[in-house]
Amino acid sequence: MKTNRQTPVGATNTTLRLSGFHRPNKHCRPLAAVILLLVALQLQVFVLTVLAESSTNRKSGGARPWSVQVDRVDPGDVGLDPSFGAAIYENLLEELTKTEQFKQVFRSGDRNANDAPGLLVLKTTVQKYTPGSETRRAVTTVSGATKLNVRIQLVTREGQVVKEHVVDGNVRFIGGNLRATHNLAHNVAVTLKRSTLSEQADPVSERETGKMSK
Amino acid sequence: MTSFQVGHGLAFLTVLLSLSTASIGQNQREAQSPVPRSAIHVTQVLGFVGAKHNATGELKIQGGVMEFQHDRSTAAQVNISSIQNIFVEDGDKQVGGTVMTLGKAAAPYGGGRVVSLFAHKKYDFLTVEYLDNGGGFHGAIFQLEKGQGETFKKALVANGAHITPPV
Fold first, then answer.
1. Do the Cβ atoms of A148 and A171 come closer than 8 Å?
2. The domain containing residue A39 runs over which residues?
3. What radius of gyration do chain B's Cα atoms show?
4. What integer best gives the mean pLDDT of chain A?
5. Are residues A89 and A41 in the same domain?
6. A140–B contact, CB cutoff 8 A
7. In this predicted model, what pLDDT tens digit does every residue of A128-185 receive, in sequence order?
8. Which of A38, A149, B19, B37 has its Cα between 20 and 30 A from that of A160?
9. Looking at the domain assignment, is residue A3 inside a domain?
10. Within a domain: residue A121?
11. pTM for the whole structure
């Protein structure tokens, strides 16, 4: 006599449910991996896009692309040699162009700047100047440094001061005296690049001072 | 410190000193001769449009134009009438270039400092301020042999360059 082994219905259903759960799970694993991979890729693209946008904003100095016109260097009352004034001016043009922070870099008096939108003027005033001596630096090492200390201002066409900094540029060991002008221009460019320029070019409420020396 | 090392160091110093004095002497002989009418040998330090920094070449005045020719490349030119101001200053620079710098660094017993006393030579630095066609201001600096600066400045003024009198 055959006896049918009858398993309880609930257990059967549970077994079926369990087996049903396990069987599709085998196919879900590769599917889940694919979904995870797609999500990771999308996240990566999103992060890269955000980074690219922020670097573009940084390069353009904010949402609005600014141009700059470099004014002639004001020698102040420090007895600056004319060659130093010319060298500071020319090096500033070169270093500001290299940073790519400004859409265009204009020379002082350039008529093309009159029609440029978003133009800022960079004014440089020499506050301290030590001529130094290349021979003294070579012989004594510790003395004879050539030192420059300038105040830079970024102003709008209307004359509102947007940014103001004090920057140094020195040569202490290797290099001629005019090397100080190159170091100064580089420090000015770095200082301006670190400053953020808002879209509206808000006037300076408190004077920002950044001192750098090389 | 053996006598061999001392002798070796002294010999090295002597060679460096003789090289530096020889190059200074040769250049002094060149500078003592009057500025030739055609061109003078200069180093364009920076600022002259179309010329590289520290490029050596010939600077001359020709047909109302100041021209700088570096090797056989295209000459960079500026109209003398666009020159706004000219300055001549004294200065000195080390002779010998990189070789001298390395030699001084390698000189034993601090001999490099002694060589430095003799390895610097005086020059004239000519600063020329001019405007380009768009009204943009330029400042060009040239390194000339001692004594040539004032002569070249007078030649530029005679050909129409402007000079702003000091305040």
1. no
2. 9-59
3. 20
4. 80
5. no
6. yes
7. 999 988 877 877 877 888 999 999 999 999 999 999 999 999 988 778 889 999 999 9
8. A149
9. no
10. yes
11. 0.72
